[in-house]
Fold this sequence. Notes:
Two copies of one chain form a homodimer.
Chain A: H1 9-23, H2 30-37, H3 41-48, H4 51-76, H5 80-97, H6 103-110, H7 116-138, H8 148-170, H9 175-192
Helix pairs in contact in A: 1-2, 1-4, 4-5, 4-7, 5-8, 5-9, 6-7, 7-8, 8-9
Chain A binds a DNA duplex through helix 3.
Amino acid sequence: MGRPRTFDQPAALAAAMDQFWRRGYEATSVRDLAGAMSITGASLYNAFGDKRSLFRRCLHAYVDTYARKRIAELDASDDPIRGIRAFFDDLVEASLRDRRGCLLVNSAMEVAPWDAEFATLIEQCLLEIEDGFYRALKRLPKGSFQGSRDIRATARLMLSAVIALRVLARAGGDGDRLRSVAKSAIALAERSHTPWTTASPARRRRPRPSPPLDADAPWGSPPPAHSEAQPKI
Amino acid sequence: MGRPRTFDQPAALAAAMDQFWRRGYEATSVRDLAGAMSITGASLYNAFGDKRSLFRRCLHAYVDTYARKRIAELDASDDPIRGIRAFFDDLVEASLRDRRGCLLVNSAMEVAPWDAEFATLIEQCLLEIEDGFYRALKRLPKGSFQGSRDIRATARLMLSAVIALRVLARAGGDGDRLRSVAKSAIALAERSHTPWTTASPARRRRPRPSPPLDADAPWGSPPPAHSEAQPKI
DNA sequence: CGCGTTTTATAGCGGTCGATCTAAAACTAC
DNA sequence: GTAGTTTTAGATCGACCGCTATAAAACGCG
Lengths: 233, 233
């Protein structure tokens, strides 16, 4: 029934993603998109709906293609430390090769403050990355850590390193700085299982035998919601 | 000679800065600016030149008003640890109150990839913040540190925490996550002068007597330039 | 006062925005 | 082949973009 499409839809979606990735949402016009996708504006609207719907599909495709792949590799690594090191080394290498940064982080800045739907989508993916680091840190040798509350905080600083790496890469930061950030982020995990290290000023030569294990967050479960609802800018 | 201005120029500049801060460069129209500044478009062009020139003045005003103030407070603190703690505590508090993020970081994402002039301006200010952390870390108790190369790397992770805090705040991140990032960033400095801490897997109970002090970067001097020139997206 | 100068306000320039309409083209089902 | 359906291509819509031209209003100065 009806005339079949003559263009490659996945390829067109990838081209659209690249445009949004490089230029951002607002600065990318529908004509830019159609040109990059090698289709006409009418075909674009016919196949993907309006600009916002196309952007949503690009965001989902990005998360599935790029973000979750890195998390899965981190989970699959035998040694969490080596996994974390590979994660950041790859990230630095990719960020130096490709200055587009991360579509999620870019969108967190430009789109999230104005669009609740995309804000939650982005927030969820950032949480997945954070939880990936959390699980990796949790797999470190037993009885070697401060309280698990600090595992969460350390995972969040690692997520911060990822975000900042992407920001700095997009802004043209040199490889020296990016590598330094990655080095320090990796050192976070390496130091984490050094028994004597503690965040409190009081120094302990030995870790406490077994700090009470609290319920750790399972895959994807959000942290306890805080009533910090702020109006969006 | 001639009719004097009837509007408050600094106030108008502050209003323009707020618009760029909240909406970004592209999404802010000249009409938006004129409306927020309570002047007409003709007055805007007459007093500030075109949109890009106005943005440049806003960026410079932001750096002078906000960014350098925090660095100066960090330098002025007696105890560097307390200074770093105050820095991040204030930053978290301000970021939760005001979801605009940081104009510099916002611009690093949106403008820097397309405008070499603004890219260097932003890069210089980020370097000033990094150097501020570097000086604070350098003031920690003597003979307590790993190599000074790690001071630089630690300062860069602290800068990363600042950047990520601003990104997360703008994207609507909850106070719990922001506080965790700040906590871990502060712990970076607190751990830094814990003698037993080391980034290498080999553990040492005592620090080496006195690691060779290399020439530390003076105020504002850029790190060694690397030939990593990449074409801007 | 009137002259010169600068700032105001308004209208409008050519161009681009997201989105849609009309029709011709191209296919399947019968 | 023909009917029915969908995708093409191109033109076009009203709205908004950055910017400017024009002219009236408001001052310092002689």
